[in-house]
Design a protein that fits this description.
The chain is mainly alpha-helical and about 70 residues long. The chain contains 2 helices and no strands. The protein is about 30% helix and about 0% strand.
């Protein structure tokens, strides 16, 4: 939330079934039209604006391989 409050990130919605106590001004994804969505946790990758496309592509491929792996 510090990055949202500082204007560095934009929050769209809360992932749980109820609005976040820390940020009740943001609707849940369910309220936003994603019926029944309930995400207990989330992960994200962030990078600096202007990151070169080859680097983004390499990261995307690595994440895809990781998600498709049978085990960790």
């Amino acid at each position: 939330m510090p990055h949202v409050k500082a204007g560095k990130l934009r929050a769209l919605a809360a992932a749980g079934l109820q609005r976040s106590a820390a940020a009740p001004e943001y609707p849940t994804l369910h309220e936003s039209g994603v019926a029944g969505f309930n995400g207990n946790s989330w992960l994200s990758l962030v990078g600096r604006a202007g990151t070169p496309r080859p680097i983004l592509d390499k990261l995307a491929q690595a994440v895809t391989r990781s998600l498709q792996a049978d085990s960790m």
